[in-house]
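TOKENISED FOLD:
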Amino acid sequence: MSTPISSPMATPNTAASHVQLPAKGPLLTRGGWSAFMMALIAVCAIAPVLNLWVPEGSVFHMSTYAVALLGKIMCYAICALAMDLIWGYTGILSLGHGVFFALGGYTMGMYLMRQIGRDGNYKSDLPDFMVFLDWKALPWHWALSDSFVATLILIVAVPGLVAFVFGFFAFRSRIKGVYFSIITQAMTFAAMLLFFRNETGFGGNNGFTDFKRILNIPLATPSMRMTLFVLTGLTLLGFFLFAKWLVGSKFGRVLQAIRDAETRVMFSGYNPLGYKLTIWVISAVMCGVAGALYVPQVGIINPSEMSPANSIEIAIWAAVGGRASLIGPIVGAFIVNGAKSWLTVAYPEFWLYFLGLLFISVTLFLPDGVVGLVKKLRKGGGK
């Protein structure tokens, strides 16, 4: 008889315990640490100097537009990294991660709307859209929106709780493959329709915009824009190190085993439910944090962030860069969104065709993404 499953983190059976696992390597190689430090210096020192101290007329000046664009792409890169943990390392393709990104964004947006105070068009303590809709008081779910500390907690708690409830029932029902992808897409579409409704208290079609300040500090200043840029960069680098540590741990090895042969993992005495649910919640929280950093930099959050197309794009970033590599999805987010920012201006009518062609080409010719291609070229050059 096989060893019964005891708990989500059960110890493997006696036969499996005799298998000699490979020694755990360092978190990053010497070259990896060098690249990490270069990225850290670029985010914390080079970018602020080029933006704040180099004169605008100089060729080395980093414009406000570039700061906003790179900050936005770094938020997307966090989402791509989160997607890699759940898809690349666990084998679960989610087409609904946009809802977690938007939930984090709306949570931060509610706080920013309260920070407007009486500076709105109607000079009311209520947000302008509520005054327009003849609301007399804030709805119950806005109760903690005036507290920055509570907002930080909710940015993590709201996406995490939604992911936990959804994931628990989905994984317990053993929904897998394309069926799981479909229900995640249905989830984000349903959430988008809900947030479009005016009576939910989330601004309806227009969402939240016209933000003035954060922590009573004006948002529309170069120093605040750069502060948000640096915070986003540090968050991305921190999540990268965390993901690197996670996938290299025993927990990460089990995730990869679930991806490759979930049935054999169960026969070894592990219950996949706890592992899948844990990484699902972690991935959702990462997207929520990315959304919270995105909103004050872009200046708007509305239900379109929950559209199924946005969630599909997150998967495309991971695929283009290279799944199960961690650095690949980050590279993919920069490549795709950099191209998008240029093509939507130069050739707006062809952007969606380019995105579809890119995804098909990567799927057919670069299954390991850009990072996989670079690794192959390096190996070929070393022969």
